[in-house]
User: Fold Amine oxidase domain-containing protein from Gossypium raimondii.
Amino acid sequence: MAPSALPSFSSSFLFPLKTQKSFKPPKPLTIICSSQEPKKPSKNPQRPTSRNRKRTPYGTSRRSILKKTFTQEQVKFTAGVSADPQVGIIGGGMAGLLCALSLEKRGVKSTVFDTGMHGLGGRMGTRVIDPQQLIFDHAAQFFTVSDSRFSKLVDYWLEKGLVREWQGLVGQLELGGRFIPLPSSPPRFIGVNGMRPLADSLLSETSMVNVVRPCWISKLEPFNGMWHLSENGKPRGEFDAIVIAHNGKCANRLLASSGLPLIARQMKRLDLSSIWALLAAFEHHLPMGDGNVTFQGAFVKGVDSVSWMANNSLKLLGSQGNGPHCWTFFSTAAYGKQNKVPQENIPSQTAEKVKTSMLEGVEAALGLPKGSLPRPIYSRVQLWGAALPTNTPGIPCIFDPHGRAGICGDWLLGSNLESAALSGMALANHIADYLQSDGACPEEFAVGLEKEFEAIEGHDIGQFALAGVESSLKQHNEMSAFQLAT
Assistant:
């Protein structure tokens, strides 16, 4: 994407940004150590050791161990930022990518580190199975637009032919096969060739964003006034500021001994639930009652193991003759919790159990006799271990000016594609403003470090949305509540 295509907005979007004139981390949580201005570095600088750590001026001050109370010492950068600052972004989903692109628009270079084996995008994932030519959006299913800044990006995608309005029949499916259509306004949008190409397009025309993948950043270390990132002992670069654009246990582990206790505390406040995704291809249309399924997407109600189902073949490829029909099924959060396992290593027995249970749930939802659902010609289960936030601070981003570190992600504003984009944009502009100030008045740039979280209320339908089906059926103009988030 050309930088000019990105929406522009100032850090005043971060409410409240400068209401607090002083930033005083809570004493029980932090130990602010004095720091010194760094001396001119030698030709062969050496990293500090346990013996000389206190005697060497780094431009930062911290200890590398946690106290038994798990209280970390606060990193406090005192040296000015580099003349040509660089930002390290950990996470290549929508929030991380939009943060990188927005930084480029402000003239700031960045490197995005992503763990994706198949591509960028996080939960903007699309899986294509060859040679059967099967296609599945296996996370975000669609999105809506309500903010003018995100609208500019969607307009760009529309002009490039990357997205289109999804006009297929979508509704609520109750146990036993009762289908209730939902209104189509506001418009629902989908990726023409799935969601993943949208992530790829974001970096297609950049010149100041470097991408490293697959890469699993395992350590953050302040040294000589910079953040040093590493992957299992392998150096991955030095950065003036860092961005955490992912969440869950991996983010918590990374922040546990980073020297960013306020950032870590806010991340740990986030409560996430798990969702199982079942990708299944059937040779023909799925049966339903006296005929075949005609809808393309449905929120399922009254079934323990299924909360959403969508026909990707009809959604992405249009009407098909004798081609296979590729369906994405999501479980409920309750089912995900009951059957949670390490998502990196799902036992085959668990995978088979989940597949069987979810297909039985689909059968019940469609009102079919037990055992009559056609056998899929292809199936695969995937666990999204950090899928649904159950609480949110309701702010665009979080930033610690003393530690020069921030957080962005969809969960900060809710849980959808638009929220992720706005969060990434907001943090990028905030960091750019901070870097332009050369870190002279850090207290004025603290945001979200003590913001309380509020529970997200809504029916558990596993669609990564803020509100439930029941209320939206009563208020047809609230269709934004039905979008699947990243």
About this structure: The first strand starts at residue 86 and ends at 90. The chain has ten helices and 24 strands. The longest helix spans residues 417-436.
